[in-house]
Amino acid sequence: MRRSSSRAPRGSRSSKAQLVAFVSCAVAAASLAGSAAASSAGRPRGVAPEDAALYAQPAHGASWRCLTSGESIPWSAVNDDYCDCADGSDEPGTSACPNSRFYCINEGHLPAFIPSSRVNDGICDEACCDGSDETNGTAACPNRCAKIGKQYRKKLAEAQNIQRAGSKIRDRYISDSKKHLESTSAEIAKLEVELEVAKEKESRLRASLELAERADRGVIEKKKASPLYATLRKHQEAMSALLERSSRLTSELQRLTELLDDLSNGYNPNNQDMAVKGVVMDYRKWRRAGGDTSDVADDEAAKVERNVQLDSLLDEGAWPASSVQELSDRDPLELMDDADYPADPKDSGILYRIHEYLPDAVVPYFEAGVDTLLDLLIKANVIYDVKRTRRAAEEGEPENVSTARAAHQKADDAVHALQRDLEKKRADLAPDEKWGRENEFRALEGKCVSKNMGEYTYEFCFFGSTKQKPNKGGPTVGLGSFARFEPRDKNATPADDAFYLRQLYDNGARCWNGPARSSLVDLTCATENALLDVFEAEKCIYAMKVSTPAVCMPLTSSPAAAAGAADAGSVRHSEL
Hints:
Strand content: 5-15%
Pfam family, one: PRKCSH-like
Domain MRH: 446-554
Coiled coil: 174-259
Number of strands: 16
Low-confidence stretches: 1-38, 293-297, 340-351, 384-395, 557-576
Largest sheet: 8 strands, mixed
Protein name: Glucosidase 2 subunit beta
Structural class: alpha+beta
Order of helices and strands: HEEEEEEEHHHHHHHHEEEEEEEEHE
Helix content: 40-55%
Strand order of the largest sheet: 8-9-10-11-12-13-15-14
Distance between the termini: 41 Å
Number of helices: 10
Radius of gyration: 53 Å
Shape: elongated
InterPro entries: Gtb1-like, Man6P_isomerase_rcpt-bd_dom_sf, MRH_dom, PRKCSH, PRKCSH_N
């Protein structure tokens, strides 16, 4: 038999409740039209139109099969307020099976599903505005669908108007991003050409520098190998030795005069040492010859007088020690330059200056030719004596070498600057999911919106950071920097519109004895970018609501479908 005492009736009602339910079922039997009462167009009550084929009445005498659990039951057992199928599919219009769902037709508004447990529970469910969930007489649920539907359609029309207007602005964002990318691509192509030209110039100037350095080294090596260089070095060594000896003698003479002064000043005339007396008398005579008229000068006057006499004695004439030292310290190569290379237009250095008189377009070819020719001539020892002009003040190298070095450095700097610009442009051009499927968010980068919330003013910068600024003074607190899109639906992908409706900004200022602050930003469609609301949802986690045209997707689905998606999951109900 189908009815088995082992089968549990719906729920876990008390005996009294079961009795009431039984009476209610008897009263409602007429409306159910037997055990398989139809709700619309022959469908059993609570069945959605798209599932009608699954509930087609079988041929006379045939059984109906449960949708997923597979049990076979009589057609009369469908919607008989007793749960026969393990999957609950036999009771779409009653509350007998806890795992079933009930379909509200809601004519004049949007259809909806509610859990079957809410059918005939004495509460008018908001999702079933037609009152079809309560038919056993325990609750009088008026049909409110016409009124609710009218209000809904009005709001839907307003929302769709905003979405259409916002979508046009979004299209402009996309167009602007496309132009930006095209412009960036053109700039990259231009920079690539400029970089190649700059590299060629840098290479040419590097070769010129190397040539100048080789030429300079050749000149130096040639001159160092000459007899004149060796002679100059010997003379310098001799001068250094003489200077050292002169300095030592001067020091010794000065010390000797100090000793004689001490002896002269402390000499006792009654001393019978004739040798000492003779020395003192001769020394005093020498001092008088130098202008000292006193027999015994005071110490300070004696020192001044002695220095005057020493200066006269050690007069260096036109070649003081400092001048000789300077000459001794000079590079012999410079001395050879001073002697061998007068400023003459025929000087070989003129080769490096001809380009100053040439048209700019010809200069690169001329320089390349000169570099090649000079290199060949120097290697063949046809020429080597490229003039070493004055030394550069800082680097101590010939002017032609320092000039070549400066030119090469400038060219090398230009190459690196172009490379940096090129890398930046290429990075800007690289795809990034944060810009959206069609780069609609790119136009918002760096754009900021703010809202005064009384105690604080909050600031949100797209793809930048979120901040909290006290209105009565105090430090600004960082609430996070852009990290990624954080859709509520964890299964959403960049191909889904919902993926772009929430962003995460993390690693903000650290809370006192807590984590770093962060912000979850919900984006909603509007014609303007604005910060609508901010509150601290959890400790150190802020919730922000921001409007932007960037999420105003094109209206591709029907209003009913769009509304259904918006109202999905709305199962709230009110008690009467």
